[in-house]
Amino acid sequence: MRDIVAELAERRRIARLGGGEKYIDAQHGRGKLTARERIDLLLDPDSFEEIDMFVEHDGQEFGMQDKKIPGDGVVTGWGTVNGRPIYLYAKDFTVFGGSLSKAHSKKINKVQDMALRNGVPIIGILDSGGARIQEGVDALGGYAEVFQRNTLASGVIPQITMVMGPCAGGDVYSPALTDFIFMVRNTSYMFVTGPGVVKTVTNEEVTAEELGGAKVHTTKSSVADGAYDNDVEALAELRRLIDFLPLSNQTGVPEQPSHDVRDRVEESLDTLVPDNPNMPYNMMELVTKMVDEGDFFEIQKDFAKNVIVGFGRIEGRTVGVVANQPMVLAGVLDSDASRKAARFVRFCDCFDIPIVTLVDVPGFLPGTSQEYGGLIKHGAKLLFAYAEATVPKITVITRKAYGGAYDVMASKHLRGDMNYAWPTAEIAVMGAKGAVEIIFRSSIGNDEEIAARTSEYEDKFLNPFVAAERGYIDEVIMPRNTRRRVARSLALLRNKKLDNPWKKHDNIPL
Ligand code: HXC
Prior knowledge:
17% strand
């Protein structure tokens, strides 16, 4: 017995060393932590339960039969974050560059299956050279087994990917199938084909960072949802995000003790909207003054900044916030903003997270570049997402709600549960100037007449009352009371029941 215990201890020691000291030093030299160090930072102390520590590959080609390292380049298991369970897998770059073999993929599949069966989120930490080149088709098949499980788990349990090193070829598609991707600046990158292949095929000279670094994917491609300066910060923020998320689509949102007051009055909000309707203001001020303790986890904050999306809490329970941002492009909806918000709305709806929508939108962005880029289809994504969502939907119109964008932004007509407007709201087909130019195009005379007509239009339509008189707005509220109104509505809507007609799945305009 004593011998076998000693052997277990020795085997564990060797497995925990991964590729060994030389490779660990190299990993640190690149500014990265090892898989096990990352797990330690992510999980609560002593909560990690490792699975499959001794698994080895069975590759027989290119001398691999003599090169076996227990664990085979991925550390898998489960643990807790602030007491709540998660499954995880972390690629170990010190072992064959974290590359994926058949055995390696089976380890990932095992935790994926357990997470789905047990209704627990799964986190993937990626740092890998892609398919194990010595294994060929077994590695390709292994990736597809991961993708299949990602797809089946989508909408059932939250899936999050941390890209913390190279991530190429097969490794990029699994993250893309998950709910959120976070990257680390300067040490991580994602691309389907690397700079070498790009040079051969297109003759473009590009560095890995320029092709698929964190900046590219958080500002241009929108593949990633956030970027952090180093592994430690990324994992601390991941813990924060996990606290907001339900364990699965069956559990409802988590509830945390809140030290904030539900009826907190924010007088400063009464003057948030400037007198001049063309002046911007920062919608983030309303977001942070509305949610508990100003704590807001923003998603995709560097992409399509004309719309803000993210998680907050009200009375300790998670809400998803979608808000137009008048500081950027006057808060207009364009293709990027529509896609960004649509995906977020769908995430919330999958996981029973109520949605609070804050509206100040002058419409959809006109122009050839938008129309050629498929604005109709992208705008329709957001429309579709809101229209199909059955979670509690609360809308507050702070200022402009013009045209199709009024309809789209969780209007009453799309089954909004409570639709509020501030006294400064302007709900109309378009702004007064544009309206006058069209209605009176053939008859209008001098500047004085234009001004008179414009002010007539403003008086008639640019207020919340026309909509309130028709019941499209449930109530015109004082800005200072927004938190209380939203909180009380959310409390009332806790047992909301609303089902869509049965279907195999919908056909959102992709
Ligand atoms: C086997 C690999 C490997 C791989 C890296 N290694 N990638 N072993 N299969 N895919 C090994 C290296 O041989 C090396 O081992 C060790 O990992 C560390 O790699 P380095 O090259 O020294 O590290 P670095 O300089 O940091 O470069 C990292 C890298 C590079 C950029 C990821 O290793 C690389 O380009 N690897 C190949 C990437 C690739 O083309 N993968 C296939 C993608 S195709 P030693 O023992 O020498 O230290 C794919 C298809 C799937 O994934 C499609 C499914 C849909």
